[in-house]
Amino acid sequence: MVFSLEFAIETIGLTKRYGRLTAVDKLNLKVKANSIHGFLGPNGAGKTTTIKILVGLLKPSEGIVKIFDQETKGDRPDVRLKIGYMPELPKFPKHLTGYDLLDIYGEMYGLTKTTRKEQVPKLLEMIGLKERGRDRIGKYSKGMQQRIGIAQALINEPELVILDEPSLGLDPVGMVEVRELVKGIAKEGITVFLSSHLLFEVEQVCSHVTIIHRGASLVSDTLQNVSNKLSGPTTLQIEVANLSDAVIETVKKLPFVSNVSQDGNMIIVELNTRDDVRSQISQEITKVGGVIVSMSLKGQSLEEAFIELVAKPHGGKAE
């Protein structure tokens, strides 16, 4: 599926208040079509409230919501049918089989019996539950339940899939399974809007990211640009046998090097880029007779930078 509209989701001044509490605060959000967009923030940041507004479960106090350039104000089933949604920690009847669950959801969406007979087995195979489709959901592991939750979000062949904390509570194996499943959905041309507080997990799959705190957007851009804005300089620690002044001076002259310091046979190189320039530095050191013993890349991770960002007073915005 390929769609010409630029944005799958667009909010303008989106606000949700509960009495004196503002859960979502003038949120301007743009999610490019055919992208995997990470929606990040600590617990209580307003992610789930925003999602419930997007799918029509809550009404905003103020602001505009557009799905593929169509406003969702009022009763718009034509817009909602474009969306697949998996809530946080989905709970399904334990007595149903995976097949039965998907069949029921398909019927609710108005799919014919013939279409459901084709669609349900395909989805079970896609999520890796082809052999377990006739087992009761009560016998499924947590990871399997998350996967069947993603499958029900796809039963109506949506253009946009919204997943609220799909990796929550999963072990590392389950996280990898969900991650690969999300990548597979995106390859079908479906836009994925992925809410999470696990930034390291989002880094593995997302092309774009928005970070919110206290209901307001702190930063929104491509993952690479957000990483560059938040994570700060990268440092290389290079151990060189018989370290000479020539090696130090050569490294200092490189255009992507901002500072060089020495500690015994170790040079600490601060970079003004987040590109991987280790091969260029290695070549220059070798040219002047240096022999590299070891080289390690150090730097603040995006997860650490995220924690630092949301810890700022009033959720200070990134410059």
Structure commentary:
With 319 residues, this protein is an alpha/beta fold. The chain is built from 11 helices and 14 strands. A 6-stranded mixed β-sheet has the order 6-7-8-3-9-10, sandwiched between helices. A 4-stranded antiparallel β-sheet has the order 2-1-4-5, covered by helices on one side. A 4-stranded antiparallel β-sheet has the order 12-13-11-14, with helices on one face. β7, α6 and β8 form a beta-alpha-beta unit. α3 crosses α4 and α5 packs parallel to α6. The chain is elongated. It starts with 6 loop residues before the first strand and ends in an 8-residue tail after the last helix.
Keywords:
11 helices; alpha/beta; six-stranded mixed β-sheet; 14 strands; 319 residues; four-stranded antiparallel β-sheet; 34% helix; disordered C terminus
Strand-helix topology:
Layout: E1 7-18, E2 21-32, E3 36-40, H1 47-54, E4 62-67, E5 70-71, H2 77-80, E6 83-86, H3 98-108, H4 113-126, H5 142-154, E7 160-164, H6 172-187, E8 191-196, H7 199-203, E9 208-213, E10 216-222, H8 223-231, E11 234-241, H9 245-252, E12 257-263, E13 266-271, H10 278-287, E14 291-299, H11 302-311
Parallel strand pairs: 3-8, 3-9, 6-7, 7-8
Antiparallel strand pairs: 1-2, 1-4, 4-5, 9-10, 11-13, 11-14, 12-13
